[in-house]
Structure formats: structure tokens, C-alpha cells
Specification:
- Strand 5 and strand 6 form a beta hairpin.
- This protein has four helices and six strands, in the order H-H-E-E-E-E-E-E-H-H.
- Helix 1 packs across helix 2.
- Strands 1-2 form a two-stranded antiparallel ribbon. A two-stranded antiparallel sheet has the order 3-4. Strands 5-6 form a two-stranded antiparallel sheet.
- The chain is α+β, with helices and mostly antiparallel strands.
- The protein is about 30% helix and about 15% strand.
- The model has no long low-confidence stretch (mean pLDDT about 90).
- The longest helix is centred in the C-terminal third of the chain and has 13 residues.
């Protein structure tokens, strides 16, 4: 994989706002272990039904920037609260050396002359 051309620490966690964040059985096991609960409890507490391609997805909670985002996102710090136990898709994201949202964010922060600018849904 090519070197990363983005900095997640300067992003408001756009990828965490994706409507469907798939959760595989391995992801549920990892989360259950992280929280010290059964897989059945983890599945009920942290996941919901998705769609045909992603039958099990992570639950969301309200988010000031993106309407909703992953329930594991710390909404103040904009960081994952289960980083060591995060799902595979989060571990692999993005699969390219560039992140389109980060590119957009860098551009807008320059145009707005505001290094902290974040688009909001409000």
C-alpha cells in the first residue's frame, strides 16, 4: 500500500458517519471481549440489521456534524472509543493512499481561512 496522504487526527471522523458500517461475526466477538460481555449481548447492544450486502451493521447515535455517526465515536474528541477493538472495515479504511473527505476538508479549510472548519448539517 502506498503512503498515506491524509491525517485522520485532523479530520472530524467523516468515515464514522457512513450509514452502514458493517460488523462481521469476528468484529462482534472482538467487541464482546473488549467489553467483557457475551457475543449475544454485544450483537444486541452494538449492532442492528443492515441491508443485503451488509446484513449486520454498527448502531449510530446523534452527531452535531453528520446527523448521526458510529455509536463508538467520542463526539467531543472525534476519536474512536474502541480503537483497539474496532471492526475490520475501520482497520482497513481507507483502502487507498488518499481520503476524499480529507482532501475536501483541506481545501475548504484553506478557502475559509479556518484550520478548524467543519461542514455541519445544521
Amino acid at each position: 500500500m502506498a503512503a498515506k496522504l491524509y491525517n485522520c487526527m485532523k479530520c472530524p471522523a467523516y468515515c464514522c458517519s457512513y450509514t452502514l458500517i458493517p460488523a462481521t461475526p469476528s468484529d462482534v466477538r472482538r467487541l464482546a471481549k473488549h467489553f467483557g460481555i457475551s457475543e449475544k449481548k454485544a450483537r444486541a447492544r452494538f449492532t442492528k440489521a443492515g441491508d443485503k450486502e451488509n446484513p449486520v451493521v454498527l448502531r449510530h447515535s446523534a452527531d452535531e456534524h453528520f446527523i448521526s455517526s458510529c455509536m463508538f465515536l467520542d463526539k467531543e474528541k472525534r476519536r474512536c472509543t474502541v480503537y483497539g477493538a474496532r471492526p475490520r472495515i475501520c482497520r482497513d479504511f481507507p483502502t487507498q493512499s488518499r481520503c476524499g473527505y480529507y482532501e475536501f476538508l483541506k481545501f475548504e479549510r484553506g478557502v475559509q481561512d479556518d484550520p478548524e472548519w467543519v461542514a455541519t448539517t445544521n
